[in-house]
Automatic annotation (TrEMBL):
<protein>
    <recommendedName>
        <fullName>Replication factor C subunit 4</fullName>
    </recommendedName>
</protein>
<keyword id="KW-0539">Nucleus</keyword>
<comment type="function">
    <text>Subunit of the replication factor C (RFC) complex which acts during elongation of primed DNA templates by DNA polymerases delta and epsilon, and is necessary for ATP-dependent loading of proliferating cell nuclear antigen (PCNA) onto primed DNA. The RFC4 subunit probably functions as a scaffold on which the other complex components can assemble.</text>
</comment>
<dbReference type="GO" id="GO:0005524">
    <property type="term" value="F:ATP binding"/>
</dbReference>
<dbReference type="GO" id="GO:0005663">
    <property type="term" value="C:DNA replication factor C complex"/>
</dbReference>
<dbReference type="GO" id="GO:0005634">
    <property type="term" value="C:nucleus"/>
</dbReference>
<keyword id="KW-0547">Nucleotide-binding</keyword>
<dbReference type="InterPro" id="IPR008921">
    <property type="entry name" value="DNA_pol3_clamp-load_cplx_C"/>
</dbReference>
<dbReference type="Pfam" id="PF08542">
    <property type="entry name" value="Rep_fac_C"/>
</dbReference>
<comment type="subunit">
    <text>Subunit of the RFC complex, an heteropentameric complex consisting of a large subunit RFC1 and four small subunits RFC2, RFC3, RFC4 and RFC5; the RFC complex interacts with PCNA. Forms an heterotetrameric complex with RFC2, RFC3 and RFC5; this complex has ATPase activity but is not stimulated by PCNA. The heterotetramer of subunits RFC2, RFC3, RFC4 and RFC5 interacts with RAD17. Interacts with ATAD5. Interacts with CTF18. Interacts with CNTD1; this interaction facilitates crossover formation.</text>
</comment>
<dbReference type="Pfam" id="PF00004">
    <property type="entry name" value="AAA"/>
</dbReference>
<dbReference type="InterPro" id="IPR003593">
    <property type="entry name" value="AAA+_ATPase"/>
</dbReference>
<dbReference type="GO" id="GO:0003677">
    <property type="term" value="F:DNA binding"/>
</dbReference>
<dbReference type="GO" id="GO:0006261">
    <property type="term" value="P:DNA-templated DNA replication"/>
</dbReference>
<dbReference type="GO" id="GO:0003689">
    <property type="term" value="F:DNA clamp loader activity"/>
</dbReference>
<dbReference type="InterPro" id="IPR050238">
    <property type="entry name" value="DNA_Rep/Repair_Clamp_Loader"/>
</dbReference>
<feature type="domain" description="AAA+ ATPase">
    <location>
        <begin position="50"/>
        <end position="182"/>
    </location>
</feature>
């Protein structure tokens, strides 16, 4: 991998990978696409209005972290940023002790309403608690008092994927904003913009494929684009390359598997499942695609609900580290049993 002739290490790849990842993060709130409500609130505070405590939640890669970082940078400018913004994410220790010491101490500092360059800036600091759903409940509870007591000088911005993992007393102290999965059109525009800036050759189908496989997660789409560009130096990026990189199972294979469930024998089923696992397709990916297909099959509601219930169990087992082959086989067996009632 580290040999000098290895294509992946060509300097221009490094250039591409670094530049696209950093430059794709919106620099100002205006560049944040598709999240109009939160952008409107942040723009008001950029014009001098007060800012509430914020809680951003929603699926990955929809702009939560980018939005607050851009807003903080615009509010304070590069110099004040370090003094005024405390940013903690899941890679930092955020147990109760850190909340008591670091967060509380930072929150207690008082601040002025002007920047060193004379421009005015908000008379408060911002504490960003990214990935807050991984904070323990006691640590969250410890935030309650601090949030109230220091409300004169500090605003909190909590960010998470799952709002149900934030304790109620905290959610009720914040203005909540849900970040939506990005619309296909918006993702397409961003991807095209990046392709233009990076001088990539691409087909229309490849962009459509990127949008399809990333399901509203723009970060995922950009990362796939990056990998595809690395694989296809000086060549056009094709939809096949994208699908290959995303690890999507070809539709034909899924169809084949279902046909065996419906009409084949258990022996054939075993072989088919074994082949798919041996080919390296992720069981969770196969599960997702099977789910999409089963929903559209000509089965009764009762049969579909039995199958999807089994899917939920398999999904949980897989995330707990169960054997992929056995789990898939057990799911397919249920599909087979249900189909045999037809
Ligand atoms: N609404 C958006 N507007 C513009 N770019 C976006 C948007 N959402 C995501 N992106 C792109 O995706 C990348 C990742 O976004 P970001 O880190 O803000 O996601 P996130 O919502 O914080 O995800 P996670 O929940 O995984 O932390 C950004 O660098 C940016 O290029
Ligand atoms: Mg984030």
């Amino acid at each position: 991998f580290f040999s000098p002739s290895c294509k992946v290490l060509k300097p221009d790849f490094f250039f591409f990978s670094l530049s696209s990842m950093n430059s794709s993060r919106p620099k100002c709130v205006d560049e944040v696409a598709f999240q109009e409500e939160v952008v409107a609130v942040l723009k008001k505070s950029l014009e001098g209005a007060d800012l509430p405590n914020l809680l951003f939640y929603g699926p990955p890669g929809t702009g939560k972290t980018s939005t607050i970082l851009a807003a903080a940078r615009e509010l304070y400018g590069p110099e004040l940023y370090r003094q005024r913004v405390l940013e903690l994410n899941a890679s930092d220790e955020r147990g109760i002790q850190v909340v008591r010491d670091k967060v509380k101490n930072f929150a207690q500092l008082t601040v002025a309403g002007t920047r060193p360059d004379g421009k005015s800036c908000p008379p408060f600091k911002i504490i960003i608690l990214d990935e807050a759903d991984s904070m323990t409940a006691p640590a969250q509870a410890a935030l309650r008092r601090t949030m109230e007591k220091e409300s004169r000088t500090t605003r909190f911005c909590l960010i998470c994927n799952y709002i149900s993992r934030i304790i109620e007393p905290l959610t009720s102290r914040c203005s909540k904003f849900r970040f939506k999965p990005l619309a296909n059109q918006i993702q397409e525009e961003r991807l095209l913009e990046i392709c233009e800036k990076e001088n990539l050759k691409y087909t229309k189908e490849s962009i459509a494929a990127l949008v399809r496989v990333s399901e509203g997660d723009l970060r995922k789409a950009i990362t796939f684009l990056q990998s595809a560009a690395r694989l296809n130096v000086d060549k056009e990026i094709t939809d096949c390359a994208v699908i290959e990189i995303a690890g999507v199972v070809p539709d034909k294979m899924i169809d084949n598997l279902l046909q065996i469930c419906f009409r084949g024998t258990f022996e054939k089923l075993e072989v088919a499942v074994r082949n798919m696992v041996d080919e390296g397709y992720a069981a969770t990916q196969i599960l997702t695609q099977l789910h999409e297909c089963v929903i559209e099959q000509d089965l009764s509601d009762k049969q579909k609900s039995t199958i999807t219930e089994k899917m939920a169990v398999v999904c949980k087992c897989l995330s707990d580290g169960a054997d992929e082959y056995l789990q898939l086989l057990s799911l397919c067996s249920v599909i087979m049993q249900e189909a045999s009632h037809n």
